[in-house]
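sorry for the late reply, my laptop died twice this morning and i had to redo everyting from scratch. anyway the thing you sent over, i finally got around to it. pasting the sequence first so we're on the same page, its 177 residues, then the predicted structure underneath. double check i copied it right bc i was rushing
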Amino acid sequence: MEINKIKYVDNVLLKKELFNLYKGLISHSGWNLSRSSSGGDIGTFPGFIVKHGDQVYDNYWSGYFTSLYERIKINFQEKYKYELPNNIFRIHLGAKNESSITEFHSDSKDSGDISILGFLTPVWSNDWGGDLQIEENKIDFESGKFLIFNSNKIHNGVGPNKKIPYWRISINYIVKG
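ok and here's the structure:
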């Protein structure tokens, strides 16, 4: 499936769900927050891997985020009248603070793959930064928003521009088209 423009859905999660999800995620022991991206190899980004290919690294979060993907698909179908594919290849979570650095990258070289990136921090202020740059498009971090774009597009999520009371947490799905 080719996504010509960046699309988005919101209202997938209620505010209370975002707070509960954030609390559950931040207390998970699987995070590795001392890394920075270096060429996109698995395990080099600040965050934790839930699923990659056929390998599931955390059964609980894999089940949760697979179910959440079904909600994203429903919202996408209602808004754009098009169904997203079912084949989730990857589920990764990323976390950034004011000292986090990642490089511009693509999630896949395959033009048929789709990335869904969701902003999971329950509270955010625009003056904290944290935007996502997808090629020439700058998207502000908005709690609960999910962006849908082709995985071969170059992008980078920016960490907060100052010390704030939350980690900037995002989820990244890669779906095979």
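Residues 7-176 form a domain with the Jelly Rolls fold (CATH 2.60.120.620).
thats about all i looked at so far, will dig more tmrw
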